[in-house]
Write a structure and sequence with these properties.
Number of strands: 12
Order of helices and strands: HHHEHHEHEHEEHEHEHEHEHEHEHHE
Helix content: 25-40%
Oligomer: single chain
Length: about 475
């Protein structure tokens, strides 16, 4: 082989795909042939640091985007606006604020190619930035995915986007002032709070996206207007992620079949009591899940506090065993759950052939919920529960595994220091459960399984704080 040019570009790109961005940049700088091969990978994401808008480097990059003189102008398919964590060079001069017209022009130059936009809003952003970005991206003709992460605040209208297939809107939720216990009643009835601006416009965004199949709404508000609009228009989601369950969500889910991913995030700030949450759980397990039992692959519904959503309280075990395509299951566990209830849960679940892991998060008791509600205004995070009921979980798993037909699976061993271990490799849960403030037990079926149905599966149990050994 006489030169690198004898290598096929496809081969170079296949190798470069395994490199991180820094190594791709170094490979790109080797010669023009490698640059032409690596650029479509390295330059597929256009990143504009919103906390470096007065940097000469940012200004030059924006100019290059506007003029089409950079590889990001040719290969950029995803646009990401957010803060960079790279420290600013103290020797770098600070220029005048980047004019909004220049940034808008640069963004519009990306419009013909961009298919996904991720925008992370912070309180430190210039006042003009949010509206400039929103006005620009509504002109992106090929935009399919919009991901917006912003602080929980009023007065931010959503961009009027259309033809999206994926919409994700997340608010950074801060502790809200509660009136948690009925110790006293106000002497004056206060008017209800005004609707958030995005609540008034979310229905318009959803209505303009009849092809929407993935929706993520993480907010302190219920966002019922979105589910009512989806129901009225007959839009059938395949994947949905929420952090607050309401009757409007359940009414929508009962209107169709075909849901593949349902994630109800663990929300310590949703402090509704069991009389309000239990009917929602019964309706979900008895009426909603049967509608999607043939298609559901991921079911995650851990609760921060004990109620009928937890194992030992819910009556959904019968429908869980019918989820033949289930690969991921995450639920919460009551502190008072007896071993026999755990066994009745594990026996059918471990027989699901496609299951990859189960995660169990211990829920806070009712007394802890009430204490947490009182302390919310003072504490940034509700109290973390102490590790509990390892023995009951361990015993139930051992019994569930030993009663399987055929040869027994490897013995189960437990490390009570940091994690519960299962006869094979430990895996990290830091990335999967990084936002949780509690311990997590998870089971992954064993690599040394007794028959071919589980031979491709691994075997691990871990808690949220464990790292790979």
């Amino acid at each position: 082989m006489s030169s690198l040019a004898d290598l096929a570009i496809e081969l170079i790109q296949h190798v470069a795909a395994f490199l991180n961005a820094v190594d791709q940049a170094a490979l790109r700088a080797t010669n023009t042939y490698l640059q032409d091969a690596v650029d479509p990978l390295l330059c597929s994401v256009v990143f504009i640091p919103t906390n470096r808008l007065r940097s000469p480097k940012t200004s030059a990059f924006v100019d290059a985007l506007e003029n089409g003189s950079t590889s990001w102008s040719r290969y950029g398919r995803r646009l990401h606006l957010g803060r960079t964590i790279t420290p600013r060079d103290s020797r770098e001069p600070i220029t005048d604020q980047l004019p909004s017209s220049r940034l808008a022009s640069a963004l519009l130059s990306c419009a013909p190619r961009t298919r996904a936009v991720r925008y992370v809003v912070t309180k430190e952003d210039p006042e003009w930035l949010y509206q400039t970005v929103c006005d620009a991206i509504v002109a992106f003709p090929l935009l399919q995915r919009f991901d917006l992460l912003r602080p929980h605040q009023l007065g931010r209208a959503l961009p009027r986007l259309a033809r999206l297939s994926t919409l994700k809107i997340s608010s950074a939720i801060a502790p809200v002032q509660q009136q948690p216990l009925a110790f006293w009643h106000p002497l004056v009835d206060l008017p209800p709070p005004p609707l958030r601006t995005d609540q008034l416009e979310l229905d318009a965004v959803v209505a303009a996206c009849p092809g929407l199949h993935t929706l993520e709404l993480i907010s302190a508000d219920a966002q019922d207007v979105a589910w009512e609009t989806l129901l009225q228009l007959g839009i059938c989601l395949r994947q949905m992620t929420i952090n607050r369950i309401t009757p409007a969500v359940l009414a929508y889910l009962k209107s169709y079949s075909g849901l593949e991913v349902f994630v109800l995030q663990r929300n310590p700030y949703d402090q509704r009591d069991p009389p309000e949450m239990d009917p929602l759980a019964r309706e979900f397990f008895e009426e909603v899940l049967p509608m999607h039992e043939t298609t559901l692959r991921v079911l995650r519904c851990p609760m921060a506090y004990e109620n009928a959503w937890s194992i030992g309280s819910s009556e959904g075990i019968d429908v869980l065993r019918r989820l033949a395509n289930l690969t991921q299951l995450e639920m919460s566990l009551c502190h008072t759950t007896p071993e026999e209830v755990l066994l009745s849960f594990f026996k059918p679940i471990l027989r699901l052939h496609k299951l990859e892991y189960i995660a169990l998060t211990p829920a806070l008791s009712e007394a802890q919920r009430r204490s947490s509600a009182l302390a919310t205004r003072y504490l940034p995070v509700p109290p973390r529960p102490k590790p509990a009921h390892e023995d009951r979980v361990a015993a139930a798993l051992r019994v569930a595994l030993s009663i399987e037909d055929g040869d027994a699976l490897p013995d189960v061993s437990f490390d009570h220091a940091d994690c519960l271990g299962f006869a094979a490799e430990f895996v990290t849960a830091q990335e999967q459960f990084k936002d949780m403030h509690t311990d997590v037990w998870a089971y992954r079926p064993g690599a040394q399984a007794r028959n071919a149905e589980a031979t491709a599966m691994k075997c691990s149990v871990w808690v949220a704080t464990v790292s790979r050994r």
